[in-house]
Amino acid sequence: MGKAAKFSTPLLCHSKLLCFSVLYLFSSLFLAVYFSFSTTKCIFRSSPYDPIQELLFSYPSSYGEHKYALPTTRSSCNSPVYFSDYWVALEEIRKLCSNFTPSALKYLQRTDESFGGNLSFYNRSSYFDHHDNETQIPCGFFKRFPISNSDQISMEKCHGLVVVSTIFNDHDKIRQPRGLGSKTLDYVCFFMFVDDATLNRLHFHNIISKKSKEFKIGAWKIVKVSSESLYENAAMNGIIPKYLIHRLFPNAKYSIWIDAKLQLVVDPVLLIHSLVVRENVDMAISRHPYFVHTMEEAMATARWKKWWDVNGLKIQMEAYCENGLEPWNSEKPYPTDVPDSALILRKHNVATNLFSCLLFNELEVFNPRDQLPFAYVRDKMNPKLNLNMFEVEVFEQVAVEYRHNLKKGGASVGPKLKKASSDLFGNGTLGKCKEYLLKMWGESHD
Ligand SMILES: *[C@@H]1O[C@H](CO)[C@@H](O)[C@H](O)[C@H]1NC(C)=O
Ligand SMILES: *[C@@H]1O[C@H](CO)[C@@H](O)[C@H](O)[C@H]1NC(C)=O
Ligand SMILES: *[C@@H]1O[C@H](CO)[C@@H](O)[C@H](O)[C@H]1NC(C)=O
Ligand SMILES: *[C@@H]1O[C@H](CO)[C@@H](O)[C@H](O)[C@H]1NC(C)=O
Predict the structure, then answer these.
(1) Going by DSSP bridges, is the β-strand pair 262-264/387-390 parallel, antiparallel, or unpaired?
(2) Would you state the pLDDT for residue 436?
(3) For a Cys staple, 198 with which of 167, 293, 405, 428, CB 3.0–4.6 Å?
(4) Do 183 and 90 touch, CB atoms closer than 8 A?
(5) What is the pTM (predicted TM-score) of this model?
(6) Cα 372 to middle of ligand 4, angstroms
(7) Mind listing the UniProt keywords for this protein, alphabetically (predicted)?
(8) How confident is the model at residue 15 (pLDDT cuts 50, 70, 90)?
(9) What separation in angstroms does the CA of 54 have from each of 9, 296, 402?
(10) In sequence order, what are the beta bridge partners of 227?
């Protein structure tokens, strides 16, 4: 906005009054134009009249699909996103999907007590530098993912773009995507993974009948996961579809992961087309609204008790500090080290699939907070990931956020540990992250 102040004195300014009036007029005009363009929109559609689907599903009012949308505070942005014409985008995505060659990455087949093998640090590290497509990458599925055969078959039939979400432990409501183009449901598969607790609620509201073997609610195909045999922690189970999406949908070429607290309001074809294909990247993900350093996120995770095991967080961060995690700096080819991972758009290729496997392995050993190992894995892995980390304002305009279901007695993410200090480096020693922290503070105090 500094531009208005930089006008040099024009000839017009022979009369002071006229001059001020003209200046005033121009600045008001400038501000009006500025605000009407930038504060209302970060996304632009080539045609606002793209054919839009009718209402996908009507919920009984008792279910309250749309309760508690969270207001967004930001609305202006530096790099708005322009969406292509729906039919052009659809045609291009269809073409890209039709000459699909499966990713050359090979996966380790084994059986183990734990789904991901609970691999040692040394073992996990040995897969970061990938220079031989014959190497078998450990990538979960060391035991069966408990879904029905018919669901598995329909997942394998998804050949183009898949949109995936999960609701475990009845944590959220099923929300229908809005703004879908009229042909989108013919080309895009929507899969929602749920457990028994979530199914019970849907049954209770008469949204599904327990007798039927296959469930569909609006756009979403519902897949029941018998999660008792997986992880104890529901969030960890949610990590399986979120990060092993390329294994659950081995024939999908593109995917969009969306947390169930979000409702998609832009067509997934347009999203993949403008945020991934046109940007020529492997993956697109939103930036965190405030943090740029992993350690800021780790400290917030401890302080706001987003994960109960503070000592475990400390061990994790120290392992990363000791093995080369650096605070964010302008030499990194990415604008931040911290994503908001509620929406992830992927092209399923060697780099993205490898990244997803490596990240999953970290989460399985430490905790399901996926922002913590994000930069460590991204910066250490080879081949390098081509990432579009788009602005949070764009994120907020392509997806609307709602509150989670409230639970009686408060949602607990794990056993209560009395002794856990809520501050990551609360006892005065910075430990193995001393160098990281000094660099980070040095930078932010400049
Ligand atoms: C994973 O391995 C660590 C030791 O390497 C052990 O302490 C932990 O209990 C194991 N976790 C699981 C779920 O097996
Ligand atoms: C890593 O662990 C897996 C599973 O135990 C094992 O099959 C593999 O050989 C190990 N890899 C390395 C490099 O140690
Ligand atoms: C692995 O396969 C991909 C896709 O076929 C190819 O682009 C890449 O060069 C291969 N990488 C290595 C290290 O052979
Ligand atoms: C602080 O924590 C570190 C690492 O966990 C530990 O080694 C150290 O003994 C602790 N210091 C105090 C004063 O408790």
Answers:
(1) unpaired
(2) 93
(3) 167
(4) yes
(5) 0.86
(6) 22
(7) Membrane, Transmembrane, Transmembrane helix
(8) low
(9) 56, 43, 22
(10) none
pLDDT in tens, 97-107: 987 787 889 99
Q: How far apart are CA 191 and CA 223, in angstroms?
A: 7
In whole angstroms, give the CA distance from residue 337 to residue 362: 16
Distance CA 281, CA 388 (A): 6
The neighbour count for residue 40, using CB atoms within 10 Å, is: 10
Pocket of ligand 1 from Cβ distances under 6 Å: 114, 118
| pLDDT over threshold 50, residue 419 | no
Main-chain dihedrals φ then ψ at residue 261, nearest 5 degrees: -75, -10
Q: How far apart are CA 91 and CA 101, in angstroms?
A: 18
Task: For Cα atoms 240, 145, 203, give the angle at the middle one, nearest 5 degrees.
Answer: 85
The answer to whether the bond into 102 is cis (omega within 30° of 0) is no
Q: Whose atoms come closest to the Cα of 124: which ligand? A: 2
303 lines ligand 2 (CB under 6 A): no
Atom of ligand 3 nearest to the CA of 131: 13
For the CA of 113, the nearest atom of ligand 1: 14
Report residue 89 CA to chain centroid gap.
22
Residue 155 phi/psi, 5-degree rounding, is -70, -40
Give, in order, the Cα–Cα distances in Å from 446 to each of 291, 297, 439, 441.
17, 20, 11, 9
- What does the pLDDT read at residue 410? 42
Dist. CA 421–CA 309, nearest whole Å: 9
Task: Give 429 Cα–ligand 4 centroid separation in angstroms.
Answer: 6
> pLDDT band at residue 69, thresholds of 50, 70 and 90?
confident
The count of C-alpha atoms lying within 13 angstroms of the C-alpha of 90, restricted to the half-sphere facing its C-beta, is 15
- Rounded distance, CA 55 to CA 323, Å? 51
Q: Residue 230 CA: which ligand is closest?
A: 1
Please state, in angstroms and rounded to a whole number, the distance separating the CA atoms of residues 168 and 150: 21
Rounded distance, CA 294 to CA 436, Å? 10
Q: Any idea which of 20-24, 93-97, 147-151, 265-269 has the lowest mean pLDDT?
A: 20-24
